[in-house]
Structures are given as structure tokens and as C-alpha cells.
Design goal:
The protein is α/β, with parallel strands linked by helices. Helices cover 20% and strands 21% of the residues. Strands 4-3-2-1-9 form a 5-stranded mixed β-sheet. Strands 5-6-7-8 form a 4-stranded mixed β-sheet, with no helix packed on it.
């Protein structure tokens, strides 16, 4: 998927974990879900929103319906995370026009690899934008991630963005 010129803005978000109230015990605010939905209002019809995975925990149909109702006219991409366990056809039948494990996009003069987990550098991308680690050292030091750590990876943590999507252009600059 290559896209150097788009109508609208490109936004990224990750690890929304809708319905995962246990995250409150790990430091997310009680109202994190409502903050996310409030902040989604900055994404406008014609924009593209790339979700880097871990969309929800349980009540999948309800969360997907609420999410897509909040974002009419927005183009969506889902990169499946470790909690996105439904079949590809389930996601496609429930609002996602594009679902994958990772993809590369050329935008703003950069070749960007989008994934849920950090990816080993293969010489092909300029940046690997990923989620998964949140704003803590949770899992960052597991051997499989330490082994592939490189200067080309850029972590997006929803906890660092006040539970808001981020403009891709601003994130890579």
C-alpha cells in the first residue's frame, strides 16, 4: 500500500483495549475509554486512521459498532495485535476494509513499516511505527524484542498521547 498524496490526514492510534478494565490497575485512568472516543473527534471524514492493534477485549461487536459509528466517512486500517484474535473475515465483515499483520507505506518522504510489534530492520523501511509496549517497560526487555531492537523503531503509546490519535506527519517529524 503506497500513498504519498491523500485526501485528508493520516492518523495513527494503538492499543485502545476497549473493554479491558484491568488496564486501570496498571495505571490507565478510569475514563480512558471515554477519553479515546472524545479524542477520535479530531479524525474527520476523508481522513485515514491506522489502528496498530489490540483494539478490544471482549464484546467485540459492540466495540466495533461504537467505534465505526463515531467515525463516519473515515478510512480504516487494522493491524492485528496479540489481542485481535477474530478471523480475518470477521474483521472485514464488521467494518474494517483493510486488515493485516503489517504493511509498508511511503508517506512524507519516508518508507514506513506499520506493525503491532517492533520489527527487525530489513534495510527496506526508514521507520517501523509500532505499539504493543504501552508507556512502560512492560515486555520491552523480553529476549525476542531485545534481539531486534534498533534505531529505526518508533513506539506509539496511547498513554503518551493523552489517549488520542496522532497525526502521522507530526509523529514522524
Amino acid at each position: 500500500m503506497q500513498n504519498t498524496k491523500t485526501k485528508g490526514n493520516i492518523w495513527i492510534i494503538t492499543d485502545t483495549h476497549f473493554g479491558h478494565d484491568k488496564l486501570i490497575e496498571y495505571g490507565r485512568p478510569q475514563d480512558f475509554t471515554e477519553r479515546i472516543f472524545k479524542n477520535l473527534s479530531m479524525v474527520k471524514p476523508g481522513d485515514t486512521l491506522i489502528h496498530l492493534g489490540d483494539f478490544c477485549i471482549g464484546k467485540d461487536k459492540e466495540w466495533h459498532d461504537r467505534y465505526f459509528s463515531a467515525l463516519p466517512g473515515v478510512k480504516h486500517v487494522l493491524i492485528r495485535g496479540n489481542h485481535d484474535c477474530k478471523s480475518l473475515s470477521w474483521y472485514l465483515e464488521n467494518g474494517w476494509p483493510f486488515v493485516c499483520d503489517s504493511f509498508t507505506l511511503t508517506a512524507f518522504g519516508k518508507r514506513i513499516m506499520f506493525s503491532h510489534y517492533p520489527m527487525a530492520w530489513d534495510g527496506y523501511y526508514d521507520w517501523n511505527i509500532h505499539g504493543h509496549f504501552h508507556a512502560s517497560d512492560h515486555r520491552r526487555y523480553e529476549p525476542e524484542f531485545v534481539k531486534i531492537k534498533n534505531g529505526y523503531q518508533k513506539l506509539l503509546a496511547l498513554e503518551w498521547t493523552d489517549y488520542s490519535p496522532v497525526s502521522l506527519e507530526k509523529f514522524i517529524k
